[in-house]
Amino acid sequence: MSRDSDVLVVGGAGVDTIVYVPELPLPYADSYMIRSGIETRAGQTGDFVALGLSALGLRTHHLDMLGDDPEGELVRALHRDRGVGLTVIPQPAGTKRAVNLVGPDGRRLSLYDASRSHSEDRFPEPVLRALADGSRHVHVAITHPAAHALPVLRDTGVTLSTDLHDWDGENAYHEPFARAADVVFVSTARLTDPERTMRHLVERGRARIVVATAGAEGAYLLSDDEVTHVPAVAPPAPVVDSNGAGDAFAAGFLFGLLSGEPPRRCALYGAVAGAHACTVPATRTAAAGREELLTRAAEAESALR
């Protein structure tokens, strides 16, 4: 069957306002002078995954709700400029937005504007089904209303992935995503026992692969009932920002998966893409390209022999 795209990304479109602060947590003060400036740019989790996949040569399409507002136009322009297809469902509440406080070490604190969605928001089923039927794979962001799209997506038979981000292993909001996806990404940031959580994800859902990312400590891969450690890859330049590293990891991993690579090499691709993302300031969106990723992955494999 012919497919129109390799990956459909559902949800996660929005705009971030980046503020570089002297430290995190930020001590209380009446005011701070931000010498580097305060900049608003398009790009949240779904945008970063879509752009990362496209930069690696995969035919990528993005579906989400956007407002008829300046933030929505920033998102539309980003996709036009990068050649990523975008299907927009009108969002009367406005485009999702957040403020990211970024510390000197690249860590970030995100403040999400929860007012820009409604509980009744839904993707039209005919649109969702048609886009999924035309894709080899669907990556679902854990943003509203993507959870309501999961039954339709599963019904199409297409494989699904999701990123639970800094899930604590208990929050019920993440459960529908965790149970529906064939490939699950999660950060170890709030997990007391990452391997136990990873195995529970397999036992309670459909996941055949679980990846727990651990920042500078690398990642843990659960595949074929075996957990292995994937070392971190040295960034190609100084680390300036961790924003988008997890999204880049997911894009690199999915690139490998859709290229027919074994899970271990997919995780290496993810580590390379994630390391690259850490060298890109939060005010920019610049994903690793296919040639760079393959070259750095080959170098990393040679170093481990």
Please, how many domains? 1
Strand content: 15-25%
Instruction: Assign the CATH class.
Output: Alpha Beta
Report the uncertain regions.
none
The name of the CATH topology is UDP-N-acetylmuramoyl-L-alanine:D-glutamate ligase
Reported CATH architecture:
3-Layer(aba) Sandwich
Average of per-residue pLDDT values: 94
Q: Give the strand line-up of the largest sheet.
A: 5-4-1-8-9-10-11-12-13
Q: What gyration radius follows from the Cα positions, in whole Å?
A: 18 Å
Structural class: alpha/beta
DSSP strand count: 13
Mass-distribution shape:
globular
Organism: Streptomyces lannensis
Pfam families: PfkB
Keywords: Kinase, Transferase
Protein name: Carbohydrate kinase PfkB domain-containing protein
What distinguishing features does this structure have?
Carbohydrate kinase PfkB domain-containing protein, alpha/beta, 305 residues, Carboh/pur_kinase_PfkB_CS, UDP-N-acetylmuramoyl-L-alanine:D-glutamate ligase, PfkB_dom
